[in-house]
Design goal:
The complex is a heterodimer of chains A (149) and B (461).
Chain A: H1 3-33, E1 41-43, H2 48-57, E2 66-69, E3 80-85, E4 89-96, E5 100-104, E6 109-113, E7 118-124, E8 129-135, E9 140-148
Parallel strand pairs in A: 2-4, 3-9
Antiparallel strand pairs in A: 1-3, 4-7, 5-6, 5-8, 8-9
Chain B: H1 6-10, H2 20-40, E1 53-54, H3 57-64, H4 66-89, H5 98-107, H6 110-118, H7 122-125, H8 127-143, H9 159-174, H10 184-205, H11 207-213, H12 216-225, E2 230-233, E3 236-239, H13 255-271, H14 277-289, H15 294-325, H16 333-339, H17 345-368, H18 370-373, H19 398-427, H20 431-457
Antiparallel strand pairs in B: 1-3, 2-3
Helix pairs in contact in B: 2-19, 2-20, 4-5, 4-8, 4-10, 5-17, 6-12, 6-17, 8-10, 9-12, 9-13, 10-11, 13-15, 13-17, 14-15, 15-20, 17-19, 17-20, 19-20
Chain lengths: 149, 461
């Protein structure tokens, strides 16, 4: 190994170490929040506008996010997101203005909802990955479910 | 109507992004490994010699003889026929029809994976080659002479295959992204059109000539086959050192472009739900604002980004080549450009494994259960009694997938470095200059590998 290789090598190692420290500094927060496991953290976007108030009043009870589907078969406020850790229970409701069939992919759960009705889902998160729930008839995604290890 | 890439249309599950800590470790290991690769500095090429050992004459005759070759060809033609028939006559639901999974998962991903281990396994099953050879044989029988062919223009090299590769992936991930038109029927029609084109080209230039240069699937799968351990020479099967046959692959124009196209298209597909998601959406909105329909806008923006990926990957590679040219004693640019193209094959493979490995494992369960028993997706057929089976998504955990993704990129990186170092030792007689030239290739490889890791870490974000 000549001097130049040595210098460049040393530089690379320094860069590597710095990169490692910088990036793993952010990991402490990111890695652990999901393992807290307190059921569901959800962002139903603007959908909270309609349902959020009601949820807030329920106070200490764990909130069950509700996805509102409008007359056009679209989720109000866009696709909802739910992130859970493996083994937790996934809970959400769908309140639909139209009669539809709701399909949670991967877990292959199907439930019908009547026009103006509400349907609840509650199941253990046993498969890791990212899954979608959609309105079968409209082929419209309403939920992105993320199950982390 | 939702607008989702193919993986969504077929599989019910997406990979979680690689966590930050694993990304950091991966990137750090890349740099450290690269440093050791430089420091190791071996002085004579390791892989430039194939070290072939012929297999027994009996086994060669059996496997390469007419009966087995004809049988494999027949299987290929039959499967193509089943796929086209299922596409035309079966359900329009992408995930319930044999055609889409068979073409884009079993073949398009399966052949690269298995070829990289075993060698060019597609060749005997290539349906167009089989039909072409049959037609050629028939011609000889009737006319009593070999069919006359035009000389293939050497300058074209593998460029027809490059264009074809981009077209296939474009159909898969850009055209299909609109969620409209990308149904099994479209794929069946595309397969028929392609068959007509391939057979016409074989008639013009000759079967083997076209398979070597222009037939997309032969050229693309054959590229990965160069990494595998079995090959043929002078009509005899042989075992060779893994990866070594890659060193004799990039001898014609367009070879570098083919590997680059592979890396670029995988990057695009891997990034369209992650790294490129926001800019893609912005561009789509811009097109929509120009009074272009949403579906067309989606396709336009996808096309633009796929070409940008190609330009980016090509740019990084060409920069490395230009850098190497500055090292005293370097061959000319054209020679360098083609001469180092094969060093990217392991990286292209690593990208494929990293982005599609889990998709392949899950979707092949569908292929060999309900899609095989009920190819048309009618819900009433059950040929092998497996129509009711589903995909078991628990056979791979997120952690397993992450480690395989990062490990494949690291392994591809190391193999790329090794092949590049070897090639430099061939081009520069002085090993110090060879090593100096490799600072450039090292930078190229680090860029690709870290880019790959980055795409994984923000995938499906």
């Amino acid at each position: 190994m000549n001097a130049r290789t040595g210098i460049i090598g040393a530089l690379l190692v320094v860069v590597a170490v710095v990169l490692l420290i910088v990036l793993s500094g952010g990991e402490d927060d990111g890695g652990d929040t999901t393992t807290g496991g307190s059921a569901v953290s959800s962002e139903t976007g603007k959908g909270k506008g309609r349902e959020g108030g009601k949820q807030a009043q329920t106070g200490t009870k764990p909130q069950v996010p509700t996805i509102v589907v409008d007359e056009n078969g679209e989720p109000v406020g866009g696709v909802a997101e739910i992130t859970v850790s493996k083994g937790d229970e996934v809970r959400f409701k769908v309140k639909s203005a139209i009669a539809e069939e709701i399909h949670v992919h991967g877990y292959d759960l199907m439930k019908d909802v009547e026009a103006g009705g509400t349907v609840s889902f509650a199941f253990p998160a046993e498969i890791e990955g990212i899954f979608e729930a959609e309105l079968e008839g409209h082929a419209e995604q309403i939920l992105e479910l993320r199950v982390e290890p | 109507m939702s607008f989702l890439p193919l993986a969504h249309a077929l599989a019910s599950r997406q990979d979680l992004p690689v966590p930050d800590w694993l990304f950091a470790w991966g990137a750090s290991i890349v740099l450290i490994v690269s440093f050791f690769a430089l420091a190791a500095g071996w002085r004579s090429p390791r892989f430039e010699q194939l070290h072939e050992r012929p297999l027994g004459a009996g086994i060669s005759r059996a496997l390469l003889g007419l009966p087995v070759q004809a049988l494999c060809g027949l299987v290929g033609v039959l499967l193509l026929g089943v796929a086209v028939y299922a596409g035309l006559e079966g359900t329009v639901a992408p995930d319930r029809n044999f055609a889409l999974t068979f073409v884009f998962v079993t073949c398009w991903l399966g052949f690269p994976f298995f070829s990289a281990i075993l060698g060019d396994v597609f060749r005997p099953f290539n349906p167009w080659r089989a039909i072409g050879r049959l037609a050629g044989g028939g011609f000889r029988l009737i006319a009593g002479q070999r069919p006359a062919h035009l000389a293939y223009p050497e300058r074209l090299g593998r460029w027809p295959a490059v264009v074809g590769l981009l077209a296939v992936v474009w159909l898969e991930v850009v055209y299909g992204k609109g969620g409209v038109g990308f149904d099994p029927h479209t794929v069946a029609v595309a397969a028929l059109v392609y068959s007509g084109y391939a057979l016409a080209m074989m008639a013009v230039f000759g079967v083997e000539e076209w398979c070597e240069r222009g037939e997309v699937f032969s050229v693309y799968f054959g590229m990965f086959g160069r990494l595998g351990i079995f090959g043929t020479r002078d009509g005899r099967l042989e075992r060779r050192r893994p990866f070594s046959a890659a060193t004799t692959w990039a001898t014609v124009p367009g070879s570098a472009a083919l590997v680059i196209a592979s890396i670029a298209t995988t990057s695009f597909d891997g990034g369209q739900e992650g790294a490129f998601k926001d800019p893609l959406e912005s561009l789509t909105e811009w097109f929509v604002d120009q009074d272009i329909s949403l579906v067309t806008s989606l396709r336009l923006s996808g096309t633009v980004f796929m070409l940008l990926c190609f330009a980016l990957v090509a740019g990084v590679y060409l920069l490395g080549i230009r850098g190497m040219r500055t090292v005293p004693g370097a061959p000319d640019l054209a020679k360098l450009r083609t001469g180092f193209a094969h060093t990217l094959i392991p990286i292209a493979l690593a990208y494929l494994v990293a982005h599609y490995f889990s998709f392949f494992v899950f979707q092949e369960q569908a292929q060999f259960t309900y899609l095989l028993s009920d190819p048309l997706g009618t819900g009433t057929t059950d040929l092998f009694g497996t129509a009711g089976s589903g995909v078991d998504y628990t056979i791979l955990t997120a952690n397993t997938i992450w480690y395989i993704q990062v490990a494949s990129l690291l392994a591809g990186h190391v193999m790329g470095l090794v092949l590049a170092h070897d090639r430099a030792l061939v081009y520069w007689s002085d090993y110090r200059r060879a090593t100096a030239s490799q600072y450039w290739m090292l930078a190229v490889m680090v860029a690709f590998t870290c880019f790959g890791l980055y795409l994984l870490s923000v995938a499906n974000g």
